Amino acid sequence: MKIINFAEHPSLVSTFMRELRDVDIQKDMMRFRRNIERIGEVAAYEISKELHYEETETRTCLGVAKTQILSDRIVVGSILRAGLPLHQGLANAFDGAGNAFVSAYREYDNETDFHVKVEYLASPRIEGKVLILADPMLATGASMELAYHALLGKGTPKELHLVSVIASRQAIEYVRTHFPADTTLWVAAIDDTLNEHKYIVPGLGDAGDLAFGTKDD
Ligand code: URA
C-alpha cells in the first residue's frame, strides 16, 4: 500500500485542517463542509497525476493545440452521510466520473461494542475502472472495507484509491492487511489514538454531525 499524507508538507490543506479541527470554527457547518470539500478537490488533483491520459488535438480560435484527455474511467464512491462533502470535492474535479453511494452505519451491541451495517448501495459498474473511495474519518477501516466489498458486487476496479481527511494509525494497519497491495491511501492527517468509542483522537469529532447536524437516534 502507498500512503500519501498531505500533512508532511505544510500547504493550504494545513489551513483547512486547522479550521476543521478547531472546536469553535467547526461549529460553522457550511465552512466545515466546504473545508472537507476543498480537501477532496486537492486530493482529486493529486490523484489525477497518477492517472492515464491520451494525446489529442484541440482546435483553438488561432490554431490547433496538442492536449491530453483522461483515458481512465473513474468512479467516485463514498459512505453516507459523512462522506458527502469529500465526495462532492472529488466530483467537482472528476466531473465526468460515475458516482457510487454506500450506506454503512455503526449498530451498537452495547455501550462500546458495535458492528458496521451496510443497508443501501447505488453504484454504476466499476469493472476495469479507477475506484476512488472516500470516507473522511478512517477510524478502524472497517466501514471502508465493508463499503469496498459491497461495491465489488459491481465488478473489480483496475485501481483503488482511498481518500480520508484523518486516518488513525490502527486503520492504516487494517487497510494494509485488508485491501489490495497496490491500493493508494490519500490522507490530510494521521492521528495516533482511538478512544473507547472508536473516535479518532485528537481527530475532529463526529464528521457527519459537524457537516449535517445531529440526528435523532
Ligand atoms: N467517525 C467520525 O465522524 N469521527 C471519528 O473520529 C471516527 C469515526
Commentary on this structure:
With 217 residues, the chain is α/β, with parallel strands linked by helices. It is 30% helix and 34% strand. The chain has six helices and twelve strands. The strands form three sheets. Strands 1, 4, 5, 6, 7, 8, 9 and 10 form an eight-stranded mixed beta sheet that branches. It has a two-stranded antiparallel sheet with strand order 2-3. Strand 2 and strand 3 form a beta hairpin. Helix 1 (12-21) runs antiparallel to helix 2 and helix 2 (29-48) crosses helix 3. The model has no long low-confidence stretch (mean pLDDT 95). Uracil is lined by residues 82, 137, 139, 199-200, 203, 206-208. Uracil binds next to helix 6.
State the main characteristics.
217 residues, alpha/beta, 8-stranded mixed sheet, two-stranded antiparallel ribbon, 30% helix, binds uracil
Q: What's the short version?
A:
The chain has 217 residues and is α/β, with parallel strands linked by helices. 30% of the residues lie in helices and 34% in strands.
Percent helix among the residues? 25-40%
Give the number of helices: 6
Main sheet overview: 8 strands, mixed
Number of strands: 12
* Rg, alpha carbons: 18 Å
Q: H/E element string? A: EHHEEEHEEEEHEHEEEH
Which consecutive residue ranges, at least 5 long each, have pLDDT under 50?
none
Q: Structural class given helices, strands, pairing?
A: alpha/beta
Strand content: 25-35%
Shape estimate: globular
Bound molecules: uracil
